[in-house]
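So, is this right?
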Amino acid sequence: MPTWVPPERLPTLICQHYQLPWVLERSFKIEQGHGLLADRYVLGVPAEAISSACLDAIMRDMGMPADEPGLIERLNNELSRASTVYLGYEGGLKNGGSLRLYCEFWDEIVSRLRATPASVIIGWAATDRPTWEMLVGYKWRVDGTISKSRTSLYRSDYYVQPMLPQAEILEKSGRILLRSGMEPDLQAMLIDVMAMILSSGPDIEPVFLQARENDSPRYSIDLCVHRYNLRLKDLELKLGPILQCCLGSPLALSDCLQGRRSDGWITHLSAGRSRNGAAYICLYYEPLDRSEPLV
């Protein structure tokens, strides 16, 4: 790897350097008081393609702060459980950008669900549904180059409630968004968007996540909707009022995409209270060309 690399290029160059297969997922985030963050992406890499030695090299090349006791051992354990590893970047922050590394335990969740007796699953409808660890994300700020870390490493944890019915997803989302401090008008518009997405595939079981961070006001939901085969342009009419309400300016979907096409596939919708303590909404999507180059 070169000794100097702009942080926004690192995930791509690392995948190329270590010959890792990847799938691109972009996103844009709108956050009250902080504006539009449109320069965000992750590259999903099959975890089986990353050895322990490769993970160490990736952490080094990305300038990931790794002095926390037990961090290396924990990450290697998470790699052994993961089905997908994501390398990502978020730009447009006031003091630089942010790099991140995620481990997703999708295959583990599926195996656990298949091993659960049907009688237990039926009982979930009458009792509290379990909450299982689905994803962990490590994030750190950078300013200009990987040699200039701005803040220490922090971690986001994502938990799934398996087989949560659509009606319960909407009801729970409303309660979480209310507790997050989101304004009622914005909350109502967001729930309307979620209801529209879910109604487009009433027989599809969505994946509903909740995100938490230690020592942070983060409190949010994440609805995984990639199986609904919806495109960004399908939400365009409903996104305009949300952008206006959240940002106080008449932005459109085209502003959020920064010249990119609006026919990308929607993969996730995340919302709630951010690490900054502000209401936010984030929409994730895969471009039509799912291996679109970044540099």
